[in-house]
Amino acid sequence: MTSPLNVPSSQERWSPRLWGTLLVLCAAMFLDALDVSMVGVALPSIASDLNLTTSTLQWIVSGYILGYGGLLLLGGRAADLMGRRQVFLIALGVFALASLLGGLVDSGPLLIASRFIKGLSAAFTAPAGLSIITTTFKEGPQRNRALSIYTTCAATGFSMGLVLSGLLTELSWRWTMLLPAPVALIALVAGLKLIPHSDRPEGKRHYDVPGAITGTGSMLLLVYTVVQAPEVGWASARTLLSFLAVAVLLTVFVRIEQRTASPLIRLGVLRSGVQVRTQLGAAAFFGSYVGFQFMVTQYMQSVLDWTALQTALAFLPAGVLVALSSAMIGPVVDRFGTPRILAAGFAALVLAYALFLRISLTPQYAAVILPSMLLLGAACALVFPSLNIQATTGVDDSEQGMVSGLLNTSIQVGGAIFLAVVTAVITAGDRGDSPQDLLDSFRPGLIVVTGIALAGLLITLTGLRTKADQQTVVVAGSAQDAAAPEPAKVAVRD
Asked: In terms of domains, do 177 and 232 share one?
């Protein structure tokens, strides 16, 4: 199915309405990513104001990830079956209301509940928004350009969330919760006017209700188990039984998906080496970054005694670098292909984390912190757009929502799992509250996130093959190729 805004040729200029549609989708993705990171710098203030323990404080982060990661498969398939526009706009409205609720509540449980609702709504806006883009822009340079802008907005939101959080926390942590509400409402009003109506699927729609129940249940239980494991114990009966229940639910889910006529996720997608590398790479990328951010914000405020604003400004170079790269990533991907860009991005990520291992009780901004942040910004700018382009290339329009949901599930579940692992490592090494004790507990966590990033690099390197092993698929030619007798080709490695 084709949107009325679909771009037929890479030479054609984008209309103002097309740009407007992309900006609305970018705004929603910016808010989704912003909300994951913006709470980070505000955590110490929230803990002090609401008298929360460290384990409860983690749930303010994990509650959002729980709703987001647990329902993404359902959100992606709902976009394909119920209509991308409808799903996107309804979920965006819920996101705005939950943001308002989060800024007004006066207890930890209610704040966590509002965060869960926001994550739940993001689980529908993210795959719906991404699939609107991939079904609107023609595969090739046009889509790569749109996806590079879209995913750079997401990476910018995640990076700038820390900066905005630092600025707003100086006034009150509540402003970090309230800020997304008016932006989401503006995007909702604009979306009602700009997003096309014709993306509702034609014909009879079949809903995989058993698959939705077992798939969503398994993801929710998996995320819940891994975020609770550091508190109750990884080897406790509760944790082991929860993992067993996850395995049972996933087994039932797979059996259902193999037999149903309209599966929540077509399992054949996972036979692709490209897709497997993309999903594992996404989990490693986001998981390592969430764990790194969780430690660094506490290191800067608890060990270095920096203010929330100083902490936010320390992350600013990474955010600025990501924001400035939005117009450049698409052409770079067109020229070098996603496997090479991903390898370069993960290499920068490993270097950033490894360099940060040199931290001490005194700030070493020029020698350690600034170079780490610049490398981190370069990694985000290269990896995040490339993952989205690689995941959606060659996928039929009718399955774009499904693949988008799968990618975002890998990102969020990876974030939840590795944040829980890092938290467990930090807690195990916690010997006291002195700055030296805190620093000693953070170092093993930094080693873990470096190892996760290294694993991601090794996974992406398997996608680099010789020319003889490459396949090519025809896509729309670029403007420079307009006079050529054959259309441009993009390398697809499997």
From this structure: no
pTM here? 0.75
Range of the domain at 237: 208-261
Contact 197, 86 (CB under 8 A): no
Whether 4 is covered by a domain: the verdict is no
Q: How far apart are CA 241 and CA 244, in angstroms?
A: 5
Q: Are residues 454 and 395 in the same domain?
A: yes
**Last residue of some domain: 221, 243, 261?**
261
Please report, for the domain that includes residue 458, its CATH number.
1.20.1250.20
pLDDT tens-digit readout, 53-110: 766 777 787 788 778 777 777 787 788 778 888 999 999 999 999 999 998 988 888 9
Q: How far apart are CA 217 and CA 212, in angstroms?
A: 8
Alpha-carbon dihedral 94, 95, 100, 106, rounded to 10 degrees: 100
Residues 229, 377, single domain; the answer is no
Q: How far apart are CA 483 and CA 474, in angstroms?
A: 16
Q: State the pairing for strand pair 471-474/489-492.
A: antiparallel
Count CA atoms within 13 Å of residue 469 on its CB side: 8
Mind giving me the DSSP string for 82-142?
A: H-HHHHHHHHHHHHHHHHHHHHH--SHHHHHHHHHHHHHHHHHHHHHHHHHHHHHBPTTHH
- Helical segments of 171-208, H only: 174-178, 180-194
